[in-house]
Write a structure and sequence with these properties.
This protein is an alpha+beta fold. The chain is built from four helices and four strands, in the order ααβββαβα. A four-stranded antiparallel beta sheet has the order 3-2-1-4.
């Protein structure tokens, strides 16, 4: 493994993309690419949410796209992984990355929250929506 010259920004174990906007290399581009993957998942499965990787670079964290479905037998909502992506290239990662639960934040953002986030990034002077968690 190569030695890292730049000290890594630590990623909180329960981080979401919204928590990391300040440290992302290209926040608008990163969130736009994540939103593309969420939209693809939503078209395929009817739902989409994202969790960030907590063990990589905070400037371009990997991310996991998931969707929730109701189990027809138990009527409980179950989360299914769609795919994991590299935060720097936005290419799909090998499936073994998904299985390692400690790689991913337990906190997710749904597609609506990510859409609102990119809106705020593109138009920072717009009044904050009532759904914003900033006060």
């Amino acid at each position: 493994m190569a030695t890292k010259r730049v000290p890594q920004t630590p990623i909180a174990a329960d981080a979401t993309i919204a928590d990391m906007v300040e440290v992302l290399d290209k926040p608008v581009e990163y969130v736009r690419r994540v939103l593309e993957k969420l939209e693809r998942c939503k078209r395929a499965h009817g739902d989409a949410q994202v969790r960030v990787g907590v063990r990589g670079r905070a400037e371009a964290p990997n991310y996991l796209i998931e969707y929730a479905r109701e189990n027809t037998k138990t009527r409980e909502l179950e989360t299914h992984q769609d795919a994991a992506y590299s935060g720097s290239t936005h290419r799909e990662l090998a499936p073994h990355h998904i299985a390692e639960a400690r790689n991913w934040s337990p906190e997710e953002m749904n597609i609506t929250a990510v859409s609102a986030l990119i809106g705020r990034l593109r138009n920072p002077r717009a009044p904050a929506s009532r759904f914003s968690d900033e006060d």
